[in-house]
């Protein structure tokens, strides 16, 4: 990273209206959502418009970028920008998940044991042992009386273990697809991507089933205290990222079928692959820290 | 290299760009975007000032005169959020946009469309923050966020619709910061002129690089924290509720994990630009370039491991108190290195005191006071007394207003002639400096004494013995506020016209930005210069 080796011309895109539309749509989406959760139902219309705006921008902006890429406007120099940018973006995602892992750590190691550890003469929560998993000691809360419901924690060796296998396999298939691309073996590329997408979808289906199971049979909900909150927020945000990753993979798959990407020019593919591996690693942490331990 | 200008591709030939409002809405040009950031920052600075002048009016005398306590609380929180997120940070980003490509010899920022998005997220964020004021007038909700800028649970779990607006405002601001940081980092790593190694970079780029790293590491944690707040408020989670096994203190950890680095996020770009001004007006090379870069790194790294000094008094275990106290105090070591370098740069230089230099010298002293009083607060035992008092308010204004805003102003006077091609009015500049510096001290020195005497912060009414100091502080605040109008006038005048600036602007300015015409052409370096 000490000296630059590139040709003198850098691609600076023309003025673009997409960013402003995106920001406005986000404003509408957020504003509508706020009204909605505060009991003003009409907020949903604002959300709808915002959502459509975001869709429009996604198609338009990415479409433009794909066009530029296929039009040969991105050379090595631009490519390097995208790579560095993607790495930094994934780093910020790591920090986002770190906040939730941090909350899990804090509750398990600090706040829950502390709540169970008061001197028995002074404790506001007599009989609360502070073990994990827990829905908390209960008692008065800011929302009025809260009595933690009983729940069964999610076991690690059923669906979660299968999901671990699925995601690990998908990491292999996407790498296999990459090898195909590097060797100019388009069949391998497309087959590998298709398998990865299928595995992603399978993961999401199982996760949806698991949530259903949790709510219906285990009595485990978002409101189940420390365990419920960290369980659903961590797996939920992870699932959301898998969803995004799967959509991105589908786009890459369609582009591959259309003949996009060359063995020496395929940042789009690699960016998505990196993202997918990132989602994979987060899952491994989840599996160990949320489900297993 | 020689083919660079000849082979302009059609899609990026923007000598011709849309005009009128569309130019600004759609621009991908780093100078246009920088100008928008700086303009937005100036407007929000005035607005944030207006809000707090209302607060100072209420505090002019004991007793309640001007407003309800609820509204008072809203003004304080929104003032702080605006000043930090919508005035200081965008100003620094504006400079990054304007100056990094010029200083690094780049054709533009690395990701121009993303750059535009980063800016255009800010107005929606400001709208979200301010909308509850208007909605309250229409009978919806009870006004803006009333928790102060720190959103402490459980107060923020209980608050009205304004809190939700603030949460989403923070989300948009956060996305904007992350996009801006991505852009800055990619530009620094990938767009430097051939031959410009990292250690040959202008120090402003170093300051911004560390700022961008800190933003990437901490803004998402804040986003996570306020998301938990949102789900605690509306979706039944118990992150910050002991009944569910959570803890309000958890929120303070999450907030200050971001909040403490945030102060260096706003200061590092300023520390980056101060050495440029010092060399220019001392006519001497920067003293200790390497030492400054290493100090930036040291402070950047230390800043993410000291956060709990903001809540020493919540009942942390003693080992934690000791750790956070010593680690906090250790930040003063690299900071002292920086102060040494700044002063050594001036040492025996042939100095002149144009407005940017005046602001810089004033800045060194005032920011020094901010740092020293911070050292006082870092002492656990002393903090038990001073926490949540006006001493804290005075301290962070010496760092944020003096260390942040006044540093930015030094930068404005320094670079404005380059950006506009016109010289500002030196007399008005000097008047602005003296009025600001004096009024600033009249406003905030009394607050140190108020804090030492025990006046708590965030309170609309107070005991009689605090009257005189509060009165002085309010008078100072109004003078301070009014003198900023001179600045606004001077800036607008300079943009509009005035004496032509030379390319070099200052007698002994060094760096690539001064090799370009003033104002620089729409495309800075369509051909990259080579650095030996
Ligand atoms: C005209 C200049 C200013 C005046 C007179 C002023 C005055 C005040 C006052 C009276 C408070 C409330 C103190 C309390 O009761 O807790 C306050 C809070 C605050 N101000 Fe300023 N301020 C000014 C400029 C700034 C600037 C430029 C910044 C940041 C860059 C800033 C950042 C803050 C912060 C972070 C708080 C704390 C708010 C909270 O407690 O949540 N202020 N200011
Ligand atoms: Cu701090």
Write the layout of secondary structure elements.
The complex is a heterodimer of chains A (293) and B (532).
Chain A: H1 18-37, H2 43-70, H3 76-116, E1 139-141, E2 144-146, H4 159-182, H5 186-218, H6 225-257, H7 267-292
Antiparallel strand pairs in A: 1-2
Helix pairs in contact in A: 1-2, 3-6, 3-7, 4-5, 4-7, 5-6, 6-7
Chain B: H1 21-26, H2 30-59, H3 69-104, H4 112-120, H5 122-137, H6 155-158, H7 161-190, H8 203-234, H9 248-282, H10 289-303, H11 318-330, H12 332-346, H13 355-378, H14 380-386, H15 390-420, H16 426-452, H17 467-496
Bound molecules: protoporphyrin IX containing FE and copper (II) ion.
Protoporphyrin IX containing FE is lined by residues 49, 52, 55-56, 76-77, 79-80, 83-84, 88, 148-150, 393, 396-397, 400-401, 404-405, 443, 457-458, 477, 480-481 of chain B.
Descriptive overview:
The complex is a heterodimer of chains A (293) and B (532). Chain A is mainly alpha-helical and 293 residues long. Chain A folds into 2 domains: 1-74; 75-292, Four Helix Bundle (Hemerythrin (Met), subunit A) (Up-down Bundle). In chain A, 70% of the residues lie in helices and 2% in strands. Chain A has 7 helices and 2 strands, in the order H-H-H-E-E-H-H-H-H. Chain A has helices spanning 18-37, 43-70, 76-116, 159-182, 186-218, 225-257, 267-292, and strands at residues 139-141, 144-146. A two-stranded antiparallel ribbon of chain A has the order 1-2. In chain A, strand 1 and strand 2 form a beta hairpin. In chain A, helix 4 runs antiparallel to helix 5 (186-218), helix 4 (159-182) packs antiparallel against helix 7 (267-292) and helix 6 packs antiparallel against helix 7. The longest helix of chain A has 41 residues, at 76-116. Chain A is globular. The model of chain A is unreliable at 1-6 (pLDDT under 50). Chain B is an all-alpha fold and 532 residues long. Helices cover 68% and strands 0% of the residues of chain B. Chain B is built from 17 helices and no strands. Chain B has helices at 21-26, 30-59, 69-104, 112-120, 122-137, 155-158, 161-190, 203-234, 248-282, 289-303, 318-330, 332-346, 355-378, 380-386, 390-420, 426-452, 467-496. In chain B, helix 7 packs antiparallel against helix 8 (203-234). The radius of gyration of chain B is 23 Å and the shape is globular. Mean pLDDT of chain B is 94; it is low at 1-14. Classes of the chains: A mainly alpha (293), B mainly alpha (532). The interface between A and B is large, with 80 and 98 residues. The complex binds protoporphyrin IX containing FE and copper (II) ion (CU). Protoporphyrin IX containing FE binds next to helix 2, helix 3, helix 15 and helix 17 of chain B.
